Amino acid sequence: MSTPDLLRVEGLTTAFTVGGRSVPVVRGVSFQVRAGETVALVGESGSGKSVTALSLLRLLPTSGRITGGSVQWRARDLAGLENAALEQIRGGEIALVPQDPATALNPVFTVGDQIIETLLAHAVATPRDVHRRMLDLLDTVHIPHPAQRARDYPHQLSGGLRQRVMLALGLAGDPALLIADEPTTGLDAPTQARIVDLLRELVVQRGLAVLLISHDLDVVASCADRVAVMYAGEIVEQGPARQVLDTPTHPYTLGLLASVPGAEPGTALPTIDGMPPAPGLLAPGCAFAPRCPQRFDPCERLAPARWAPAVDVSTLCHLYDPAGRASATDTPDA
User: Quick one: pLDDT at residue 271?
Assistant: First the structure.
């Protein structure tokens, strides 16, 4: 029997008001996260990953709004919830670990006080035992000498320790889903590896589901069960992590994987030609077509349909349209 979905996102569309007009930034995004599963949203900066995460919890800035689709959490539509009900879910059932701990942590309070405040806010600890619970959380995320570090201010901690404090804050409400937005960005390679190991440990020990937002495919390969690749606000490829990363089907996924460092020293690193389109300035057809080495006649004229080139894999690409394959073979660079 398959594990039921905790989170089911269907056709999510989010737009920002820019210069008096509505500009879509997330376009028809659909994915699911099951209990105990890690799902990664990957793509270049500006692809819509973080805006997707903020949309799930309705934490968009005032210029942004959800214009379509649904976000189902345990079969409840978050888009239709009153603010009071949504507040109970934020941090309690779904926790967001933001991208930059240096700005997310309050610089004028100790890290221990910030965790205590969160524990009390979610009523998961009483005033009598809240200090012990705070130390337990610091220990859970492997911060050495928890009692000493609890008295430190954020600026006194290294980047890796600040990231661990953010994870402790995320766990304080005992959530079922942790949304981790670029949790390894700005960290050196050994510290990145330790943070990834910690995430995997939390999934196993706590049965956490994780929505991992990252542009680092090495990180994704080491901990994700499923991967959704985003480009220009859309999911262009989605499927089991090993299948997507080992045998990618979308040309954009191929380009991302080719750009991962690891070649012999002195070898030029492959890149994807061109730049992602600016929101609101998408050309007709496939958004990736201007940069795609495999584009052919319909790519710049017609929006592609979603195809299933393999079991459990979906790809938004004309190459997998049975009616278009002959043309693609004849004119691969047209």
Answer: 83
Residue 15's domain is classified under what CATH number? 3.40.50.300
Residue 86 located in a structural domain: yes
For residues 31 and 11, what is the distance between their CA atoms, to the nearest angstrom? 9
pLDDT, one tens digit per residue, over 135-157 is 999 999 999 999 999 999 999 99
What are 277's two structure tokens? 């389109």
Within a domain: 288: no
**Three-state secondary structure of the chain:** CCCCEEEEEEEEEEEEEECCEEEEEEEEEEEEEECCCEEEEECCCCCCHHHHHHHHCCCCCCCEEEEEEEEEECCEEHHHCCHHHHHHHECCCEEEECCCHHHHCCCCCCHHHHHHHHHHHCCCCCCCCHHHHHHHHHHHCCCCCHHHHCCCCHHHCCHHHHHHHHHHHHHCCCCCEEEEECCCCCCCHHHHHHHHHHHHHHHHHHCCEEEEEECCHHHHHHHCCEEEEEECCEEEEEEEHHHHHHCCCCHHHHHHHHCCCCCCCCCCCCCCCCCCCCCCCCCCCCCCHHHCCCCCHHHHCCCCCEEEEECCEEEECHHHCCCCHHHHHHCCCC
* Residue 21 structural domain: 5-93+175-242
Per the structure, the count of domains in the chain is 1
Residues of the chain with pLDDT under 50: 326-334
Residue 191 lies in a domain: yes
What's the pLDDT tens digit per position in 249-295?
Answer: 999 999 999 888 765 566 677 788 889 998 888 888 999 999 999 99
Residue 240, φ and ψ in degrees, nearest 5: -55, 140
